[in-house]
Structures are given as structure tokens and as C-alpha cells.
């Protein structure tokens, strides 16, 4: 296996929020990895912008330290880090004022790709877009990258879309959902559309149900002010889980191109049935054993925000009629585990004795940890004594199957930032997709707010509230264990 790197053209990447957490933790360490992979052109430049007074030298030092903190020791040599940070510059800019903008303009070069990463809160998106336009820093070929949360409901998402559209065309706007940059998520499309094995069976006739789990062990980690206003529904479901659902449920696009893929995803969101109040369970983690509770973390004993949600979602179209999608996500759960399980139906008629055991196939797509796929098949248990059936996994962990030459599995951000430079929007959300996702989630959130519904309490590091198990039990099904 030879890993292939596609060269990119020279670029000036401006990061607003260039000294912030995301830039230090994800964006710049991601670019450093691309630099190591030989994908950063020699004359590429990254310009960090923020409000602080920093020289280029001080900024380079800050990012050098961030790379040392957020990339594994095994992949970095001091000389590479130094060579990488030489691509960095710093400009002090006041997003809401006038200072720094002329300076930024003077830093930009002609004849290279210009990309502007808005790694700041959405309240600044409008001001940044307006100033990039009025100071003539962005041109019709420039790209802007915006982070989630893209709005907190349909009205605010529409407003954001309208503000950005005043200065940028949709083809220039890259809305990040970092789940789309995860290697296995892209592999879901490769598995579905690069093989003839699965697609003929990928429908209600053969699929009993689908489970999508994104379980985290982390808690609120000092993000209480944001999280308590969002909850798991806004923080994870409206974006990440919805994207996983779309890629699993969508019809085959005619081409692997941005609009063909996004048109199909949009159709799935529009086909979602409104969620029945009996079809979801909200949870909030308890404290104990020296661990704080959710309410303590967000410093509000009366908080009724959910840190966990499980739901049964119906996609109302020909392909999926009768096959539910069970979604769950939560914080402070037993293990960090994200996966999609496609559970197939049992064979229509068993030719074996009743006590041979009945089994069905399951295709598990593991996003993290241990990215890979696993197909369970039914075989005969070895040995004499009649026909007894057992389910065994045909396991393919990518790291094992592809070997060390395939290199490390890239982090979502490094892939996505390079896609921006290449001008490939396939793995970014289109404005209408985001709005459709909010249009589905808004009434659900309004419903439980109106009823002042309290979430069920669950033990930290468990599988979530008991009722979430019941959501499947009552349908004669069960969740896969949450385990690393
Ligand atoms: C973010 C959420 O979008 O995704 C966080 O805001 C969450 O709350 C994170 O922890 C999970 O991402 P990952 O890549 O660690 O699964």
C-alpha cells in the first residue's frame, strides 16, 4: 500500500481566533501533520489573527508549544516543528472595529488561494464577512470556513446564512462538521458505493434497524456556559449524528461531488418524521465517588439540560419504511465509542433445528476508537453434535488491514482544512442542509421546553439512563454494549 498525497496550490490561510483553543489544539497541529506529509507548499502561509499584541516570533513560539502539546512525540522532530512555524505570521485585528484590517490586507499576496477560517463565536461571523469584503481582502475566489454551532435554531441559522450570503457565494462557504472529516465516516461511502455486496441489502426489506452511538467519557470540561444552553440535542444530534444518519440512509449520489452528495443528504433530513414524545429519552449525569454531577459542572442545581439523549427516528421514504434508526449520544458514559451498526434481518426461513440458534448479520462501522469495520456472519460451531450456529466477526481494523505504510489515520481537521484549499465542498454542510436539520430539531426542543421536561438522572460512567435501554427493549431489540 502506498499512501498518496495530492499536492495543493500555494495559499494564504488566515485564522481569525488564531490564538484560540481550536487553532492551538486542532487546526495548526492538523496543518503540521499535512506539512509532514509533504502537502504544504513551500510558500504557503498561515496568518493568525486575534486581538492580542503579538509579534510573528511570539506567535510562532506559542504555536510551537501547542504542537508539542497536541501532537504525539513520535511524529515530530524539532527541526520539522521549526520549519513549519516559519510559515506562520501574526496580525492583530479587531473583528468588530477598524484596526488591523489594512495591515491584514497588506499581508495578503496576489495569485494564491485565500482562505479565511472563522474560528470564533458566531456573533462575529457577520462582522468578519463584512470587513473582508469592504477592505477588499477577500475576492470572488476566496473561501471562508465557519465552525459550529451554526445557529442555535432555524431562525438564527437562517440569519447567519443570510449575513454570510451578503458577501460570499454558497460555493465559497465551508461549514465545518468535523465528523465528516473522520476517516471512517468517509469510508461509509466507500463501503456502500464501492462494493456491490452491501447496497442491494441496504433497505427496509433486509435491514431490521440501525444504531448510531456517539458515547463520550468526558463531561462538560469547563464549557458549562455554552453547553447548558445547548444540551446534547444541539451540541451533537443536530449536526454530527444527523450527518451520520444522512450518510447511512441516503440514496446513492450520481457522482462523488459536493452538490450530488449534499442533495441526497438533504432529502434524508426532509424525510425525517417528527419525533414522537414516546420515542426519546433525555438524561443528565449524576455525581458521586468524588465526581461532580452535571448540575454542579454547569453551576445550576435546577438545570434541566440533557447531557444524554437516545431516540428512535423514522425516515419516511420507500427505502426505509419500517426500519427505525436508533440514535444515542451522551457525556460521562462508560467508554468513548462511536459506531454505526446496521443490523440485518434474520433469514426468512430457517432450515435448521429450532435449537440451532437464530442469528442475523450486523455490519458495524467503528468511527473511534480503532477505526474499522466488522461484519458478523453466522457459521456452524465447530465439532460434532449436530448443527449449532454461532455469530462470528469478520473484523477489519484499518490499521491492521492497511499496514504501517498507510500511515496514521488523519485527524478530521487536517483533512478538512486541505479540502478547503483544494476547493472541495463535499464534506462540508450546505446552508439548506443546516436549515433543514434545525427545522427538524426545533419543534422537538420546543416540545420538551414547553413541558419543562426533566431529564432522567444516570450514573456517571454508565450506559445512560435505564429508560434508554427500554426504548429498544419494547421493540424487542437491544443496544450494543458501550465498550472501548
Ligand atoms: C463537538 C462537541 O462538536 O464534538 C463536543 O461540541 C464533543 O461536546 C465533540 O465532545 C466530540 O468530538 P470527537 O471528535 O471527540 O468525537
Tell me about this structure.
With 484 residues, this protein is α/β, with parallel strands linked by helices. It folds into two domains: 11-147, NAD(P)-binding Rossmann-like Domain (Rossmann fold); 180-473, Dihydrodipicolinate Reductase, domain 2 (2-Layer Sandwich). 35% of the residues lie in helices and 19% in strands. The chain has 14 helices and 15 strands. The chain has helices spanning 21-36, 56-70, 78-85, 101-107, 125-134, 154-167, 183-193, 224-249, 258-270, 294-297, 398-402, 412-422, 431-450, 466-473, and strands at residues 11-16, 45-50, 88-92, 113-118, 143-146, 173-175, 207-215, 280-285, 308-313, 325-330, 337-344, 362-368, 372-380, 389-397, 456-458. The strands form two sheets. A nine-stranded mixed β-sheet has the order 14-13-12-11-7-10-9-8-15, with helices on both faces. A six-stranded parallel β-sheet has the order 3-2-1-4-5-6, sandwiched between helices. It is globular and about 80 Å long. The two termini are 28 Å apart. The model has no long low-confidence stretch (mean pLDDT 93). The protein binds 6-O-phosphono-beta-D-glucopyranose (BG6).
Amino acid at each position: 500500500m502506498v499512501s498518496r498525497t495530492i499536492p495543493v496550490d500555494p495559499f494564504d490561510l488566515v485564522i481569525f481566533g488564531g490564538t484560540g483553543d481550536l487553532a492551538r489544539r486542532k487546526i495548526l497541529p492538523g496543518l503540521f501533520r499535512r506539512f509532514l506529509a509533504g502537502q504544504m507548499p513551500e510558500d504557503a502561509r498561515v496568518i493568525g489573527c486575534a486581538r492580542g499584541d503579538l509579534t510573528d516570533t511570539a506567535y510562532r513560539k506559542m504555536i510551537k508549544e501547542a504542537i508539542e502539546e497536541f501532537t504525539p512525540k513520535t511524529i515530530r522532530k524539532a527541526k520539522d516543528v521549526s520549519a513549519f512555524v516559519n510559515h506562520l505570521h501574526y496580525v492583530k485585528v479587531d473583528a468588530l472595529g477598524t484596526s488591523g484590517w489594512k495591515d491584514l490586507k497588506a499581508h495578503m499576496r496576489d495569485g494564491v488561494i485565500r482562505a479565511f477560517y472563522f474560528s470564533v463565536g458566531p456573533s462575529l461571523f457577520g462582522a468578519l464577512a463584512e470587513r473582508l469584503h469592504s477592505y477588499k481582502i477577500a475576492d470572488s475566489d476566496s473561501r471562508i470556513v465557519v465552525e459550529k454551532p451554526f445557529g442555535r435554531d432555524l431562525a438564527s441559522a437562517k440569519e447567519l446564512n443570510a449575513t454570510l450570503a451578503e458577501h460570499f457565494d454558497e460555493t465559497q462557504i465551508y461549514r465545518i462538521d468535523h465528523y465528516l472529516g473522520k476517516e471512517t465516516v468517509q469510508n461509509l461511502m466507500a463501503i456502500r458505493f464501492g462494493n456491490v455486496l452491501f447496497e442491494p441489502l441496504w433497505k427496509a426489506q433486509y435491514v431490521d434497524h440501525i444504531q448510531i452511538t456517539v458515547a463520550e467519557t468526558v463531561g462538560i470540561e469547563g464549557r458549562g456556559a455554552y453547553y447548558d444552553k445547548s444540551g446534547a440535542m444541539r451540541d451533537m444530534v443536530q449536526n454530527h449524528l444527523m450527518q451520520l444518519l444522512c450518510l447511512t440512509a441516503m440514496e446513492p449520489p450520481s457522482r462523488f461531488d459536493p452538490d450530488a452528495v449534499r442533495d441526497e443528504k438533504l432529502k434524508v433530513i426532509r424525510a425525517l418524521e417528527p419525533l414522537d414524545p414516546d420515542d426519546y429519552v433525555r438524561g443528565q449525569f449524576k455525581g458521586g465517588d468524588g465526581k461532580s454531577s452535571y448540575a454542579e459542572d454547569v453551576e445550576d442545581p435546577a438545570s434541566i439540560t440533557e447531557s444524554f439523549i437516545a431516540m428512535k427516528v423514522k425516515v419516511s421514504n420507500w427505502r426505509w419504511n419500517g426500519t427505525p434508526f436508533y440514535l444515542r449520544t451522551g457525556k460521562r458514559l462508560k467508554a468513548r465509542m462511536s459506531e454505526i451498526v446496521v443490523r440485518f434481518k434474520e433469514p426468512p426461513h430457517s432450515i435448521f433445528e429450532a435449537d440451532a440458534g437464530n442469528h442475523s448479520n450486523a455490519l458495524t462501522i467503528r468511527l473511534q476508537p480503532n477505526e474499522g469495520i466488522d461484519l458478523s456472519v453466522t457459521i456452524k460451531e465447530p465439532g460434532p453434535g449436530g448443527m449449532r450456529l454461532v455469530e462470528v466477526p469478520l473484523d477489519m481494523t484499518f490499521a491492521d488491514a492497511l499496514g504501517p505504510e498507510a500511515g496514521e489515520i488523519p485527524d478530521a481537521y487536517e483533512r478538512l482544512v486541505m479540502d478547503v484549499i483544494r476547493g472541495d465542498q463535499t464534506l462540508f454542510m450546505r446552508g439548506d442542509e443546516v436549515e433543514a436539520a434545525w427545522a427538524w430539531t426545533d419543534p422537538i426542543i420546543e416540545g420538551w421546553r414547553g413541558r419543562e421536561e426533566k431529564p432522567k438522572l444516570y450514573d456517571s460512567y454508565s450506559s445512560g439512563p435505564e429508560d434508554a435501554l427500554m426504548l429498544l427493549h419494547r421493540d424487542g431489540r437491544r443496544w450494543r454494549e458501550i465498550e472501548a
